[in-house]
Amino acid sequence: QVQLKESGGGSVQAGGSLRLSCTASGTIFSIDLMGWFRQAPGKQRELVASITGRGDTNYVDSVKGRATISRDNARNTVLLEMNSLKSEDTAVYYCKAERVRTTWMTRDYWGQGTQVTVSS
Fold first, then answer.
1. Phi, psi of 29 (to 5 degrees)
2. Using CB atoms within 10 A of its CB, is residue 38 exposed (0-12), middle (13-18) or buried (19+)?
3. CA atoms within 13 A on the CB side of 102
C-alpha cells in the first residue's frame, strides 16, 4: 500500500514563503513523476509544478520565477518552495505521484491535501 504524506501548509503573509514536502511510503520500486497541484475554492485543480526522476521540471506560468520543485529519489520525497506569495496562491495543495511501480501494480497516487492561506 502506497501512501503520500504532505507537510508544510499553513497561513502565510503576502510576500512570504512556504515549503511543502511530500513523501511516498510503501514498497516502491520507482516513481516516474512527482508533482504538486492546487485547487482554490470554485476553481479546477491545476498543476503547480512537476519533476521527473531525471530532474526535468515544469511550472505553471503563474509561479515561474517564484517556485522551485526538487526531488530526492532515494527517499521518494518531493519539495516545493515558493516565495513572493500572493493571495491568489491560496488553495489546497495536493501532492501527486504518477506511475508508481510496486510489486503488484503501476498506478498514480494523490496525497490528502494541505491548506495554504496567503493573507494580505
1. -85, -40
2. buried
3. 16
Longest Cα–Cα distance of the chain, Å, equals: 48
- 66 by DSSP, 3-state: which? coil
d(CA 36, CA 50): 6
Q: What is the Rg, in whole angstroms, of the alpha carbon atoms belonging to the chain?
A: 14
The one-digit pLDDT tens for each residue of the chain (120 residues) are 899 999 999 999 999 999 999 999 999 999 999 999 999 999 999 999 999 999 999 999 999 999 999 999 999 999 999 999 999 999 999 999 999 999 989 999 999 999 999 998
Write the DSSP symbol of residue 104: S
Distance CA 116, CA 79 (A): 15
Separation CA 47–CA 112 (nearest Å): 16
55 close to 111: Cβ distance less than 8 angstroms? no
